[in-house]
Amino acid sequence: MTTSLSLAGLSLAGKSRWSLVGMSAMVTGGTRGIGCAVVEELAELGAVVHTCSRNEAELKQRLQEWLAKGFTVTGSVCDLASRPQREQLMEKVSLLFGGKLNIIVNNVGTNYYKRAIDYTADDYSFLMATNLESCYHMSQLAHPLLKASGDGSIVFISSVVGLVSIDGASVYSAAQGAINQLAKNLACEWAKDNIRTNSVAPWFIKTPLAEQVMDDGKKYKSDVESRTPMKRFGEISSLVAFLCLPAASYITGQTIAIDGGFTINGSALKTNDYFQDEFAMRKKNKHEKKIQQLFSNQATHYVEGRIPSMEDSNDQFLRSNTQRINESVLNGPFVPMVTIPQVPTTFTTKMINASLKNNKQTLSIMTPLSLAVGKSRWSLVGMTAVVTGGTRGIGCAVVEELAELGAVVHTCSRNEVELNQRLQEWSAKGLTVTGSVCDLASRPQREQLIGKVSLLFGGKLNILINNVGTTYHKRTTDYTADDYSFLMGTNLESCFHMSQLAHPLLKASGVGSIVFISSVAGLVSVDVGTLYCAAKGAINQLAKNLACEWAKDNIRTNSVAPWVIKTPLVDQVMDDKNKFTSDVESRTPMKRLGEANEVSPLVAFLCLPAASYITGQTIAIDGGFTVNDCFNEFG
Fold first, then answer.
1. The whole model's pTM is what?
2. Max alpha carbon distance in the chain (Å)?
3. Alpha-carbon torsion 344, 613, 385, 466, what sign?
4. Which of 6, 65, 111, 289 is found 20 to 30 A from 419 (Cα to Cα)?
5. How many domains does the chain have?
6. Does the annotation mark 479 as catalytic?
7. What pLDDT was estimated at residue 108?
8. Prior bond of 144 cis (ω within 30°)
């Protein structure tokens, strides 16, 4: 009997938007903690990476380890506190990469805790030079290389101390606040050069140094965990890598906290009660880098299943590959590597699993030109999702993105004809998507929808995307009570109710994620109607509150705030109103509108296991619009 295999489903690394193949990257301080994890994440996604360290022996050791893993990584000995050494480093990078560079990750930093009145002039000079001036100078030096590449990205590793008050770190906090603002300014000034700039602000990250800190202050560890809704330390490298991907092409000027909800959870944490002089502890234990660091990459076992041609027998493929898995003494999950260039999908997981024994299972991925980026952290295989309003625009793009990453998706629409048409299109693409006719303005219909979803997915749900929304423009004084009821009901109450209904299913899954499709109108004043803006502001705050309240249920909640995105409806508006088009582009540093398939990767990323420590965030995807409040004379 011949088994029919569907070449449909996940196509993560196979999509160039989700790959760094052919790109070059520079990561400062890449031999330990966050830097080390970022080097590996970028290299695994296909980038050629150069890094640096003050410690030559440690650098050589890491380079040997990376070579053994098959990564293309080189390194230089460099003390980034030295301006001449920074210049020498970038000269070497320029020669190494032919005068071009796609990515620079500014990672170096340090701190020691004192009361503000106890910092000396030397303390101030050292901490500002290390944490701020070195990053600023490295960005200046990298600018011509990034510009020459035609597609540049800068990521600053900042800290939550640049967002909220942490006692005993006033100079370090000021430097990190400066870094966050620098990211905004460079995003606007350098957008014309096709350079995107963002900052990532981690909370405590599990590293040997952080573990030492926790061992020295048991109460401090308890306080950290009590102030963190997710009650644990987390990961960061995947977010840094995502911001460098072509998939993040419309994200710039953002500061994203990766903190398990810490920065949205109330009052400040005090540190001086536990560490009078953290610098002494650092020196004693011979640690050279900052506390906010990690290396927490999950691993899997790879089985090289090679398929010479599409005409090969499917039975032969199953026998040859599953036999090797069954004979293996290792435990799964296993990832069969499909090595056909440009095959758009993976083999259906359940078809392979049917041939396995001893409760082993596979996770399948496709790789471009045999490049394996098969981490389960970057896959949605085995997960279920609901996307409201999924037949048009952003919703349609999100449905496809989630399904291509391996999720089984259910969506809804008021228009039955349009829904059936989309379902046929998705089926033809090999995507696993079902749908329901539903008017989300109706509370009973929302309840019926989630009831159907519960039956469909066995009482569990991993992902809910609240996407529906509408507006019509009036002066504030002209909105009626009916207007208010309709717009608030559609844009806010429907999302709140859907989240309530989905909560038990998300909780039952053990790994739940909610993403609200909000708008920049909830962040800055946009002339699209005050009721719509108020509803979107409420959505952004709701994401924060649910992130804290439902963290105990392993449910993460975030909102994504797009600017004007090109859809058939918006295209019609633009065609009719050229001045509006011009005004939108003039206020957007990237000088263009976004595409629906530039929003969908961010939504999908927030649902991935790779984003497991991101919650309570509102991320604008707007080409820099929300950080461009002033006229840019250098534009």
1. 0.79
2. 80
3. negative
4. 6
5. 3
6. no
7. 84
8. no
